[in-house]
Amino acid sequence: MPPRSGGPEELRISGDDDVVRVRQLVRTYAQQTKLSLVDQTKLVTAASELARNTLIYGGGGFARVEEISDGRRSGVRASFHDEGPGIPDLTLALADGWSSGSGLGLGLSGARRLVDEFDLDTEVGRGTVVTVVKWKR
Amino acid sequence: MTADAGDAQRLTEVLRANAESLIDKWVSAVAGLLRGRSTKTELERDFREFFTALLPLVGSDGRDVGGPRFTEIRSLLEEYSRSRVRAGFTPTETASSVFSLKREVFELTQDDPSLHREVLVFSGLLDSLGLLTFESYARVREEIIREQAEQLLELTTPVVKIWEGVLAVPLVGTLDSARTQVVMEKLLESLVETGSEHAIIDITGVSAVDTQVAQHLLKTVVAARLMGAECIVSGIRPQIAQTIVALGIEFGDIVTKASLADALRHALRREGVDVVRREVG
């Protein structure tokens, strides 16, 4: 794990307003790290998708955002934690166009394509943690 | 801590006897603090009311500030806080109005040691009332914010007619379910009212387009289409375009344009209107 260079910040996700707040927080970090406008938008959009997943499918949880560095470059890491039902079939969940809810089915798979690193840790009955990283180019 | 009735009685007597000069000094102190943003006449009227309501409460240390005895002064202070919020005063300035009386009472009674205990209790009472003002201030401010949020919901979703048969909906900020619902309703109603066949939904002011926003947009477009109108989505900035592609959102056969101007030109052409530049001079 790369050493931390920016203080982490956590936000509770328990309503639609919180999704907006997470988005604003991630945008602030992305701007601080001086990601390009396109990368900022991609990361913010991915965070928006994942925060909404935490809210809708995970029944709420929290988001953690921090600035990171691996010595050569800096980046922003955002992780989304819930203690919901977990994801029983990862392959299906990550397939384009599949949704267990009423969405477009692109949130999780799309978010993965928007970031540089994507890590999904899930256990049925325990919850899900999704961690994404966007590096500064 | 509650002083016995005799001492409380004495402090009340002292306060009543010096009411005029106390109120006068109190008003001057607060007027100085507010640097002329509130006239002395206004302050004097308010403070005289407070003072009158406060006198029977001398002897209480303010712990029962939520009780029935305090009903009158509570409503006075709430009304005062409300007017202060509307007039743009800070919470500190508002609460200081109450705290300022303390200093005047201290000065008045400093030469009479037998009253000190009672003045201490009175000071506790003023603290409670000051905090009450502070709380009312915060509550009123929250009310205002809530009102504004509701007004904003209406304000930020105007549907404007920009040409015969062409409507425009400039979207700004965050597009959530509630907003989309308002936008969709207003757009569909306006389509009927104006008999328009084209609607331009401009998302220049939308900060991020994620799958939920896209889904809301698609629904709105489909609903408009069912009513025989064609929607054009405009204001797709480069970073948004790249994000939409990476997300894998398909806009299908919906016409999208980079700018509102492009969208208008497209709509006009479909309406059979050509814009021609005329030689000037």
What descriptors fit this protein?
heterodimer; A: 137 residues; alpha+beta; 5 strands; B: 281 residues; alpha/beta; Globin-like; Transcription Regulator spoIIAA; 2 domains; 5-stranded mixed beta sheet; 10% strand
The name of the CATH superfamily of chain A reads Histidine kinase-like ATPase, C-terminal domain
The first-level CATH class name of the largest domain in chain B: Mainly Alpha
**Order of strands in the sheet with most strands of chain A:** 1-2-3-5-4
Could you estimate the helical fraction of the residues of chain A in percent?
Answer: 25-40%
Query: Could you tell me the radius of gyration of chain B in angstroms?
Result: 31 Å
Major sheet characteristics of chain A: 5 strands, antiparallel
- Run of helices and strands of chain A: EHHEEHHEE
The count of DSSP E runs of length 2 or more, i.e. the number of strands of chain B, is 5
Provide the CATH top-level class of chain A.
Alpha Beta
What are the low-pLDDT stretches of chain B, counting only 5+ consecutive residues below 50? none
The Cα radius of gyration of chain A reads 14 Å
Summed up, the helix count of chain B is: 10
Keywords (chain B): Phosphoprotein
Domain STAS (chain B): 156-267
Pfam family, one (chain B): RsbRD_N
Protein name (chain B): RsbT co-antagonist protein RsbR
Architecture overview:
The complex is a heterodimer of chains A (137) and B (281). With 137 residues, chain A is α+β, with helices and mostly antiparallel strands. Chain A has a single domain (9-135), classed as Histidine kinase-like ATPase, C-terminal domain (Heat Shock Protein 90, 2-Layer Sandwich), CATH 3.30.565. The longest helix of chain A is centred in the middle third of the chain and has 20 residues, at 37-56. Chain A has helices at 16-32, 37-56, 90-93, 107-114; strands at 9-13, 61-69, 74-82, 117-123, 127-135. Chain A is globular, with a radius of gyration of 14 Å. The two termini of chain A are 19 Å apart. In chain A, α1 (16-32) packs antiparallel against α2 (37-56) and α2 packs antiparallel against α4 (107-114). Chain B has 281 residues and is α/β, with parallel strands linked by helices. Chain B has 2 domains: 5-149, Globin-like, CATH 1.10.490.10; 160-271, 2-Layer Sandwich (Transcription Regulator spoIIAA). In chain B, strands 1-2-3-4-5 form a 5-stranded mixed β-sheet, sandwiched between helices. In chain B, α2 crosses α3 (40-54), α4 (71-86) packs across α6 and α5 packs antiparallel against α6 (116-155). The longest helix of chain B has 40 residues, at 116-155. The mean pLDDT of chain B is 86. At the A-B interface, α1, α2 and α4 of A face α8 and α9 of B.
